[in-house]
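Entry 14. Ran structure prediction on the chain below.
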Amino acid sequence: MVDASPARQRPEKATSYDLPLTWSPFGFVGNVSIGTPPQLLPSFVDWTWINQYIFTTTCQGDPERTYDCFAKDQAIFNQSLSSSFRNQSALYPSRTWNPNHFFFYEDLTVDHASDIFTVGPSSSRITLQAADQQFDLSDHPYPFAGVYGLSPVFKTDNASTQSPFYQAWSSGAWPEPFVAFHYCYNGSVDVSKSTCKGYDGLQTLGGYNKSLIHGHLLWYDIEFFPEVNDVDFVYEPAIYNYWTLNLTSLSLGDQVQSLNQSTGAGAVFDHASYGRGAPLSVNAYEELVSATAATSITLDSPPNNGNQSFYQVDCANVDTFPPIRYQFGGSERVWEIIPSNYVEVVNDTCVLNVRTLGDGDFIVGNFGETFAKDKYIVFDFEKNKVGLADLKL
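Output, structure tokens:
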């Protein structure tokens, strides 16, 4: 049998790629291709997932029962049509998470396989998670066929828990170990989104764009922070692969807010739906409500999916509100979310777009869309560092 995998690319011939991102209620979506011939599949881009998860034809263990689990218009990968698809169950056993942050208290079950995976100019054979769907999703088709995971990789991880980007970079299919994010949000000074090539964002793979950096890129080491699996993303078995920084200071303007003293405080980078809203503790949110003279409001379509209450403010006073300021371990540099970026207009009403986790003082928060406004974010998969810079526009 002829091996359908491409020859290992030499790093000096590999090129970086700006993956165009389209905003969706779930998060950002971009296109990948899997198989031979390649099947073009929209994929949810997720900084907090450990591999390439893909819907397949398999429903409850049977590849012939596809539409017992999926809607007819659900995009899926048909593994039977790929001549390069290889079952890897002998290497990596099936795995089920319950609870999980895909389907919560329904089983998330995957088998492992390998196939040719292509993003832009990069093609390589990777190990991927082939979904074995365990319950009926036919009433809720997703606007994507899978999840392109971009979580960090630790030394103890094998290919079944390695990001597809990391696997491809390790095989020489990307020139550098960097992944970068630039968000062209509505309300940005880049009204035409020209720096995102007309899209809602760019996920640059295999490098980063120095022309978008104002000043210099500041690098931070990521931290192992097990409380993420208790407070934020709850999985069983637990998952700990997150771009988490040590949060050393939180303030509203010059008013310093307390951090959890028993666990420390973690800043998890996540630009999916859980990264919407300025990350604050419950106590700091109460302080912000008081400082902005906010009043309670009930919303049919809130600006984020947190469990906290929402508050409206006077739109005319937004410029007088305090910036939310953060510092991370390893630097005294202060990073801000300015008031106009944490106040969201919902049905002509100005609303505090804040998301809280846990109780009391700050323990963990998700730093995503709201934090990323006017910033450039880079992940280094070789050194497990997060790079932050002001955005040049």
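Helices lie at 66-69, 164-170, 228-232, 282-291, 339-342, 369-372. Will compare against last week's run tomorrow.
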